[in-house]
C-alpha cells in the first residue's frame, strides 16, 4: 500500500540488519549447543554456546515485535561467548562445533568492529 507521498506504509515489522546477523549467529550457536549436548562434549561448550544464543535470539524476537534495534553489546556478548565456547571445544577435537562457534563469534565481533572502528551504524 502506498500513501499519497509515494512511501511504502504496509505496517509490517521487518528485521533490521543487526537482527539478521544475530538471528543467523544465534541459531548457529543454538545448533552447536544441541550438538555438544547430544555428543557429550564438555559442559563449558554447551554453557558458552547457550550464553551466546539465548540473548541473541531474544534480541531478534524483540527486533521483530517492536521498534527495538539490537545494540552493539549484544553482538559483543555473542561474539565473545561463541569464541570462548569454540576454544573449549578445541581440546576434544570437536571440529564441527569449533567451526560453527568460531564463525558465529566472528559474525558478532565483525559487527562490533564495523561499528566501533569503521563508524558504520547502519
Describe this structure in words.
By secondary structure, the chain is mainly α. Helix content is 70%, strand content 0%.
Topology diagram in text:
Layout: H1 17-38, H2 43-65, H3 72-89, H4 95-116
Give the end-to-end Cα distance, rounded to a whole number of Å: 25 Å
Average of the residue pLDDT scores: 89
Amount of beta strand: under 5%
DSSP, total strands = 0
Radius of gyration: 17 Å
Unreliable stretches (pLDDT < 50, length at least 5) are 1-8
Q: Give the number of helices.
A: 4
Q: Specify the biggest β-sheet.
A: none
Based on secondary structure, the structural category is: mainly alpha
- Helix and strand pattern: HHHH
Portion of residues within helices: 55-70%
Could you say which overall geometry the principal axes of the C-alpha atoms support?
globular
Structural key phrases:
4 helices, 122 residues, single chain, globular, mainly alpha
In short:
The chain is mainly α. 70% of the residues lie in helices and 0% in strands. The two termini are 25 Å apart.
Amino acid at each position: 500500500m502506498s500513501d499519497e507521498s509515494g512511501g511504502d506504509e504496509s505496517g509490517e515489522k521487518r528485521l533490521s540488519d543487526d537482527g539478521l546477523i544475530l538471528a543467523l549467529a544465534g541459531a548457529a550457536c543454538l545448533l552447536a549447543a544441541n550438538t555438544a549436548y547430544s555428543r557429550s562434549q564438555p559442559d563449558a561448550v554447551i554453557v558458552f554456546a547457550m550464553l551466546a544464543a539465548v540473548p541473541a535470539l531474544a534480541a531478534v524476537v524483540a527486533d521483530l515485535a517492536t521498534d527495538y534495534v539490537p545494540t552493539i553489546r549484544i553482538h559483543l556478548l555473542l561474539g565473545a561467548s561463541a569464541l570462548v565456547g569454540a576454544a573449549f571445544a578445541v581440546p576434544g577435537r570437536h571440529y564441527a562445533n569449533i567451526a560453527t562457534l568460531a564463525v558465529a563469534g566472528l559474525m558478532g565481533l565483525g559487527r562490533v568492529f564495523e561499528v566501533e572502528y569503521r563508524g558504520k551504524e547502519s
